[in-house]
Amino acid sequence: MMSHKRASRRLFAPTPGGTVAFGKTILLVLDGLGDRPIHALGDLTPLEAAHTPSLDALAAMGECGLMHPCGRGVRPGSDVAHLAILGYPPTTYYTGRGPLEAAGIGAEMHAGDVAFRCNFATVEDDVIIDRRAGRISETASLVGALNDIQLEGVTFSVVRGTGHRAALVLHGAGLSGAVSDADSHVEGGRVQEVVATDGTPEAERTACAVNQFMNLAHSILDGHRDNKARRSAGLPPANALLPRGGGVCPSIPSFFERYGLRAACVAGGGLYRGIATLMGMDVVDVAGATGLPNTDAVAKIVGARSALATHDFVFVHIKGADSLGEDGDSRGKTKFIARIDAALEGLVDEAVAGTLVAVTADHSTPCALAAHSADPVPVVFAGSSVRTDSVAAFGERACADGGLGHVSGTDVMPQVMNLIGRQHLYGA
Amino acid sequence: MMSHKRASRRLFAPTPGGTVAFGKTILLVLDGLGDRPIHALGDLTPLEAAHTPSLDALAAMGECGLMHPCGRGVRPGSDVAHLAILGYPPTTYYTGRGPLEAAGIGAEMHAGDVAFRCNFATVEDDVIIDRRAGRISETASLVGALNDIQLEGVTFSVVRGTGHRAALVLHGAGLSGAVSDADSHVEGGRVQEVVATDGTPEAERTACAVNQFMNLAHSILDGHRDNKARRSAGLPPANALLPRGGGVCPSIPSFFERYGLRAACVAGGGLYRGIATLMGMDVVDVAGATGLPNTDAVAKIVGARSALATHDFVFVHIKGADSLGEDGDSRGKTKFIARIDAALEGLVDEAVAGTLVAVTADHSTPCALAAHSADPVPVVFAGSSVRTDSVAAFGERACADGGLGHVSGTDVMPQVMNLIGRQHLYGA
Prior knowledge:
2 copies of one chain form a homodimer.
Chain A: H1 4-9, E1 25-30, H2 46-49, H3 53-61, E2 63-68, E3 75-76, H4 78-85, H5 90-93, H6 97-104, E4 114-124, E5 127-130, H7 140-146, E6 149-151, E7 154-160, E8 165-171, H8 201-222, H9 225-232, E9 240-248, H10 255-259, E10 263-266, H11 270-278, E11 282-283, H12 293-307, E12 313-318, H13 321-326, H14 330-343, H15 345-352, E13 356-360, E14 377-382, E15 406-408, H16 412-419
Parallel strand pairs in A: 1-12, 1-13, 2-15, 10-11, 10-12
Antiparallel strand pairs in A: 2-14, 4-5, 4-8, 4-9, 6-7, 7-8, 13-14
């Protein structure tokens, strides 16, 4: 018999007898997909301008709407938007990007730990010369030289990411994530002293510990043999770690605990893998992904469909549209969307076969702004027994006429649970 | 460098380097514009029945929706509706109409002061004979006779408004705005004793002070030479002040602090000028406004466009539709809307030139009710790079098909900030 406490935390309806079959779900998030009409594209958005027969087929067979990831008028980062879309209100669960990125590269964290994302950078006389240390690709030995350092009762762990990326985890009593960034985010800027942002003793203690660690790390890295070799080769030394996005390790109930769904994640980016990891999803590495936008997407969809054999819910993340939007490259974004669409034919097959397929974005990245915006993103639920509407094209404006109307990010998972017949009954 | 406290209170994104250009905005509020279908107008609303090529052009080039100023089902006064539309949730910032009206006629107020709007009235034996004292136009001398009165540690200031209007400000320790009106709001009614509405000692003290002041003011005014002259001329004496709408001076962060936008206000009504004043907007007096509906609107739009040269955001208020609605004059309201529309051609030009132009109302005033209602009002955002929709007419029912769907008053400013690329990023 389940204890009362466990039962009360579950949001899903228990399967009667434990054996009744229910629908499976693929949730695809196309990062930064949304945009605004662009004159050079004939006053269409990149999504509207792109040839997207697969997305349009899903729209035609599904129910569409516009989604405000973190509510109307909120301009969300990818981190908070994904938490919302996966049903974890960021006002409750978001503690900063650091722990999410750290989890994504395999950092081991425990409740109360504080994590940062970091760059290996080139610093001379406290001035940041290169935020990515010449986009250094091999940091294993440098990371090894920094590990298991203890200062004032705090143990520091550095975890290697891809390229110049790393995570820093602080373990110890009385720490806080309310501290500022060391990274000035601009080259030519000075390394910033980390300070407490809420004035608590815990934040003061954490800021002090990070500053001490950074100084020690700088002296260790500056004299490291790898950096001597880089200098000899005319390369910028990776002689500093620049932490940013600090936050305490969030206490996140697992996706299974929350929904009763065995979930998998297919994503390349550390942030998305980190979010999935913290939710207890299985992070699936897809074979055959070449890294090129098209084959990568094909491999991801193939991988997601395979994962359905052993999972109830597969979250797929595809980057690309966001980066092109941030570059202000409207034609590039349009072409990318068309290339992705070709890979999504398999999703149409899944929806036809009865799998619930939900496609949306985590935010808009209008090329005209070259930044995230608060404009809502299109969303479609296809397959299963959705109430189809008149929308036959997957676009920002077409979906405004959809049957779902305007929804929030936190409406997505309840709708998934509803459509697969697993939503908890309220009342009796 | 901004202190942490200041930074955390700002809702807008800092401009990189402080010099990047961003779009300017005109927000036009047409008071009481919304209505319901009227049989005598062929089952159209006054806005639908009126010839409105300018508003329709904005709708065609913009994104439309329906706006519930204070949320669905709430029947708002103009005061709370304007606070909401300008991004100040009235549940947080509204303390009563008195302080807003008082600020609008230039009353000096400080935190903790309590302000009322007042009428000069004609009272005999505690019965209100004329709530406007024969619409007296000159009260300077009467106001002068009432100033700097002190009673029980409270200093009273009377500020002259237009015609029979005035404001009363109480300055002193331990005051409260939770007191009732002295004005019975009907002629033939008795002057009401002001009482505490929340039972606190502060409210009891304030009510007692106001009652004492009213008695003293009545005796001063009744014997005043101006009133002797009025009686001689057969005019009703302005021998009483009737306070109503009491409230403490609200603590309102400035519009600039909140949004980083230099704002101006073009409005005639004291309430709207008061709200703008309390928000730290520059209140612009427009030249050439004759007071006639048409020329007044033309001058206001010309004034607003001029103000854009030195401001980022101009709030324009046009009264008229509300009064005609409250008179139940559907044909008059229709004609007024058509006349206003002719003045709005300049707004279409602004939108074409890239200025963000938002047009909406503060509430509906259906002629059939002759009062405010909770019916939503149309809203359009035009110019900049908005996601245009299929709506080509600015009407209550046409805008129901708009891309924005149903929004709240407090959604307006976030959408402005989003469209001009100044919305703060949530998350990372």
